[in-house]
Fold:
Amino acid sequence: MKKKIITFTVFLLILVVGFYSCEKPSKTGLKDTKWKLEGIMNVQTGDLKKLEPKDCEECYTFTFNTNTTARGYTVLNEMFISDLNPFSIWGTKIGEEGDAGICYDALVSVKSYTFYKCELKLFYDNNSKYLLYKQVNL
Structure:
């Protein structure tokens, strides 16, 4: 019986750790959260295109300083989200490397977004694609 209780307790701990494995956005929004691009998701096919370079820590990231404004980076350039509704972003793609031009073109085409738990989705191209961001620790 003791063995069953220990096994059950370990199982519950694994579930709890898995459920809380990332920091959730606060109930009030995105403020003080950081996000890194996983890739570009095609809604119809479910294919995820990962962008190069993949080994760059700050590339393709956004850090929200309020619920609707953020500062981020492609590969070489800084980007600023000045509002989420309607989505408003500014920056440049001058001298970009890797797939940063693809990311920039998608960002300036974003029409809507969603976030839930550890995922931020920025939709573009008539909602047929989205930039998939995962939350990371600050």
